[in-house]
TrEMBL record:
Protein name (database record): DUF4241 domain-containing protein
Highest classification ranks of the organism: Bacteria, Fusobacteriati, Fusobacteriota, Fusobacteriia, Fusobacteriales
A Pfam family assignment: DUF4241
Top-level taxon of origin: Bacteria
Length: 243
């Protein structure tokens, strides 16, 4: 889907207000934010074959065959995936795909070109996606299509089956045994290789659980995208003493 010229003009006027509340690179470089200890988990690499990304609830949104990708397009290839962990709470504050080693100087809210930009938009507002099953993913639209194809085949072979309980449950549990750091017994993340493909797609617990979460594209000093972050927990907002 291509955004209309009218929509792009409206977005241009408000896009600065939709930037991330802080430089999200801090989540992956600082040891503490607002007094909360942080650590970083590298969970491997993910596949970006087209540079057109989608994000959402791993078990709901990502199975929508009509899912619209973000208008911001990224480099293509295999890229490392990191999770920022709030260590005192064993919660994931953010997940990032890093395209190169350039430092991000600002983070732009991921947009699809169909958002309603009418009405007042204030600093700190954002557009995002909902999570109802406690797990989220960010991936390439081509990988998402492969996931949808897998799910359709799984459903045909398992008419009474449940994708989470009858498929992902065991994979998450096995992954937690193999990589127990910052994971609950039944698993909080999985870098999933979609069967019969070369694609990998990250799946992880979304912050405090169900909620509404923004995606931010990080730009370097030359205005090129160098990373993308799904922001689950606003640490400053949640833990600032001024709250």
């Amino acid at each position: 889907m291509q955004p209309t010229r009218e929509w792009l003009e409206k977005w241009k006027k408000v896009k600065d207000k939709l930037q991330a509340p802080r430089n999200l690179e801090d989540y992956f470089t600082l040891k503490k934010i607002a007094g909360e200890k942080l650590d970083v988990l590298n969970i491997g690499t993910c596949s970006i074959p087209s540079g057109k990304l989608v994000a959402g609830d791993s078990l709901v949104t990502l199975l929508d065959e009509n899912l619209i990708p973000y208008i911001q397009e990224t480099p293509i290839g295999e890229f490392p995936v990191d999770i920022c962990v709030l260590t005192n709470h064993d919660r994931y504050a953010a997940i990032r795909i890093k395209f190169n080693d350039n430092k991000a100087v600002y983070f732009e809210n991921g947009m699809k070109g169909n958002e309603d930009l009418e009405g007042e938009i204030k600093e700190g507002d954002f557009y995002g996606f909902g999570v109802d099953a406690g797990m989220a993913s960010i991936t390439d639209i081509e990988v998402q299509k492969a996931y949808h194809k897998f799910e359709k085949k799984f459903s045909e072979l398992n008419e009474d089956g449940d994708l989470y309980n009858d498929y992902f449950w065991d994979l998450l549990e096995e992954n937690a045994k193999k990589f127990p750091k910052y994971q609950a017994e039944y698993g909080d993340w999985l870098n999933w290789n979609i069967p019969d493909t070369k694609y990998t797609m990250p799946i992880c617990a979304s912050g405090w659980g169900d909620g509404y979460y923004p995606v931010y594209f990080g730009y370097d000093e030359n205005n090129n995208i160098c990373q993308v972050v799904v922001h689950f927990i606003d640490i400053d907002l949640e833990f600032s003493e001024e709250k």
